[in-house]
Amino acid sequence: MKGIGTSSGIALGKVLIYEEPKITVEENKAKDIDREIARLNKAIGRAVEEIQQLYVRTLENVGEDEAEIFNAHKMMAEDPEFIEGVKSKIRDEKVTAEWAVKQVAEEYISIFENIEDEYLRERALDLKDVSQRLLRILLGIESMDLSILKEECIIVAEDLTPSDTAQMNKDMILGIVTELGGTTSHTSIIARSLEIPAIAGVEDIIGTVKNGDIIIIDGSKGTITLEPSKKDIEAYKTKKKEQEDFRFKLQEMRGKGSISKDGTKVEIAANIGNHRDLNSVIENDGEGVGLFRTEFLYMDNNRLPTEEEQFKAYRFVAEGLEGKPVIIRTLDVGGDKDIPYMNLPKEMNPFLGYRAIRLCLDRTDIFKTQLRALLRASAFGNIKIMFPMISNIEEVRLAKRQLEEAKEELTKENIEFNPNIEVGIMVEIPAVAIHSDIFAKEIDFFSIGTNDLIQYTVAVDRGNQHISNLYNQYHPSVLKLIKMTIENGHKEGIWVGMCGEAAGDEKLIPLLLAMGLDEFSMNPSSMLKARYIIKNTSKEEIEPMLDKILSLPTAEDVERFIDENIVK
Ligand code: PEP
Ligand code: MG
């Protein structure tokens, strides 16, 4: 069977089917309205207490970011609009507290479920979690407690709420398989942090397995082996041992520079979306931040973040990295990243539309606030500014003009900043890669954004499952654009990095090293492995193969060539 691997690693163990306690609520008229309101208030109090306990447990056992989920739950449970909605229903329709909670929660959930943005859509699950908790308390139903499991098991469920996942006893849970959910659901996020292999989106797994069945799951591939043979079990054991040995080996990479076998030094940096990700950069020994995606500061809010709020977040990361470079990208909203309160126009082709630098140059009020915050934070660390979605030189000049204006304002106000702050652009549109010799004269660095560069080069929407086979980082045209950008950057004396997912691709790292890439920025959890690859690759050995690779006809040929001659 197959699903979407959401947390890597392999596991072999006994199935435990986890089913939510059945909660059925019938429409019942209330005999005493005041009593229902009092029951509601009491249930909210108890729910908040439970959520608080989960917050503390998650903070201690998992981490701050993951614990934040329960702060959000607490806010949902205490949301005045939600509570008032429930109370009005009790009063107006003279119904019980549980019926009113169910009705109002369902209204909210259906709004969330119909939002196009995947991240916001998955918040429906958080709301379900909170309302189920309230209903369970109101109905006096006990829940299955995943914190007191007596035996190691692989949990199989239709779906798990973040609360289920957070209260799991990590030592007893070998893996998680769910019928619903996706990569960005909070359950997957927690599973990754706990390093528990997990697979989501497995159709009818509950109807297929029963309690006590032995299964093998592979969270990297998303595969489930039912009734494994002796041979499957042997293969599993060998792979598990290899994975453990390798994990151990990677720890030895800490504190070592990223220098290739033949002495080329590069930088391995982290992509982050939040100032709270700083910990994972430090834990994985990042040499800096190559991409701080600031849009999440805007998305996790119901209004624009102020200059002060942004300044604090940027300063926190810059100070935390003690002089190591931190590249902060200005707002890259639009495309697949919506900010509901900005009321951006609906477009036929959002990826080709009003987004990122295009929007910022139009809404200079928003842009200027961010530039001021960035400049102010630059007095506290090694901050560099990066503009996204640049497609022509004029945009670079206009953006730099805004930056100069922000500098002038701060100078007048006697506020400190780094006047020589480096400014770079993302190379994520083919027009820029092709013309990179000219763009290089205008800025201090390039960072190649392959996630978008691929989609615009091969005209394949990066999020469309139906054509995902056409979206390929090994496409020779994409590789040619990357090589061209690096060479042109170097000719003009600027450094060139990469912050798209391709920078952390094990098979591409040797090629990128040979092309001369100076900085590789990726998910923090991939950094030590990337350093391991760099250390075991000789740039001089790969360089002579580049012409041959770039002249291969297809992406499949490129990948096969790498498999046979480089990664082996
Ligand atoms: C990219 O396009 O490669 C990139 C790093 O930016 P994002 O994924 O945020 O679009
Ligand atoms: Mg991009």
Mind explaining what this structure looks like?
With 568 residues, the chain is an alpha/beta fold. It folds into four domains: 110 residues, Glucose Oxidase, domain 1; 107 residues, PtsI, HPr-binding domain (Enzyme I, Chain A, domain 2, Orthogonal Bundle), CATH 1.10.274; 161 residues, TIM Barrel; 155 residues, TIM Barrel (Alpha-Beta Barrel). It has 25 helices and 16 strands. Helix 11 links the parallel strand 9 and strand 10. Helix 1 crosses helix 6, helix 3 crosses helix 4 and helix 15 packs across helix 16. The radius of gyration is 26 Å and the shape is globular. The model has no long low-confidence stretch (mean pLDDT 91). The structure holds phosphoenolpyruvate (PEP) and magnesium ion (MG). Magnesium ion (MG) binds next to helix 19.
Mind sketching the topology for me?
Layout (H helix, E strand, L loop, with lengths): L3 E4 L2 E9 L14 H29 L2 H14 L2 H14 L3 H17 L4 H4 L1 H17 L13 E5 L4 H5 L6 E6 L7 H9 L3 E3 L4 H4 L5 E5 L4 E4 L3 H22 L6 E2 L5 E8 L5 H6 L5 E5 L1 H5 L7 H14 L4 E5 L26 H7 L1 H14 L4 E6 L5 H20 L10 E5 L2 H5 L1 H4 L5 E4 L1 H9 L17 H16 L3 E4 L10 H7 L3 E4 L4 H9 L3 H4 L3 H5 L4 H13 L1
Parallel strand pairs: 2-3, 3-4, 4-5, 9-10, 9-16, 10-11, 11-12, 12-13, 13-14, 14-15, 15-16
Antiparallel strand pairs: 1-5, 2-6, 6-7, 8-9
The chain binds phosphoenolpyruvate and magnesium ion.
The site of magnesium ion has 5 residues, from α19.
